[in-house]
């Protein structure tokens, strides 16, 4: 198996940070604190076509490669195989989110069908990377350090997801809380991937 596949999770974790930043450079007056990452690919935005090309599509591919690596390398470890499946689901949902753009206005009361598909795929993305570290937390096949770290990442994700819902209702800085919530999930993937290839 090519070494590249083993590092797919680590590459994806770095790629998403760079990709969002690069795409934002082509979006006039984009605010990382007030706007969602998905607004870079929103319908009618300056980066509607660019953002999925440098974010969703390559990231989805990397997530799927990471999941494939986990499943094919640790076939006898049920917990790792289950985590690999969750990572693949995350990758497929990332593709769907890229193909179906959200509406330009995240506060619209009548979202379009593509936006609804985008939103539900986003929910699946969130859940897949909640279930994955939760599996690690409750599996005794992993060392205590990984289990504790996974639990901390889950707490961080839950806390900032709650803060995201509050800031979204108050229309303050949901972008910051979205990045921190997803950031804990991506941090978990980075450390978990590094552990699995160490």
Automatic annotation (TrEMBL):
Q: What is the organism of origin for this protein?
A: Thalassolituus hydrocarboniclasticus
Organism phylogeny: Bacteria, Pseudomonadati, Pseudomonadota, Gammaproteobacteria, Oceanospirillales
Record's Pfam families?
Answer: DUF998 (PF06197)
Q: What is this protein called?
A: DUF998 domain-containing protein
Q: Which residues cross the membrane?
A: 6-27, 57-75, 81-100, 120-139, 145-168, 180-197
Q: InterPro entries, per this entry?
A: DUF998
Sorted alphabetically, which keywords does the UniProt record give?
Membrane, Transmembrane, Transmembrane helix
Superkingdom to which the source organism belongs? Bacteria
């Amino acid at each position: 198996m090519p070494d590249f596949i083993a590092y797919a999770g680590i590459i994806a974790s770095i790629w998403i940070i760079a990709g969002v930043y690069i795409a934002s450079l082509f979006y006039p007056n984009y605010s990382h604190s007030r706007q969602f990452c998905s607004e870079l690919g929103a319908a009618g935005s300056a980066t509607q076509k660019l953002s999925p090309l440098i974010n969703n599509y390559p990231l989805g591919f990397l997530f799927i490669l990471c999941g494939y690596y986990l499943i094919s390398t640790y076939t006898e470890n049920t917990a790792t195989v289950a985590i690999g499946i969750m990572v693949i689901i995350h990758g497929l949902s990332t593709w769907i989110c890229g193909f179906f753009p959200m509406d330009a206005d995240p506060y619209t009361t009548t979202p379009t069908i593509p936006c609804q598909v985008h939103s539900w795929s986003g929910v699946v993305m969130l859940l897949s990377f909640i279930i994955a570290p939760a599996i690690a937390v409750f599996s005794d096949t992993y060392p205590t350090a990984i289990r504790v770290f996974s639990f901390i990442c889950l707490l961080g994700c839950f806390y900032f997801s709650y803060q995201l819902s509050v800031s979204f209702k108050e229309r303050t800085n949901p972008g910051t809380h979205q990045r921190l919530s997803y950031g804990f999930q991506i941090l978990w993937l980075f450390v978990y991937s590094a552990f699995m290839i160490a």
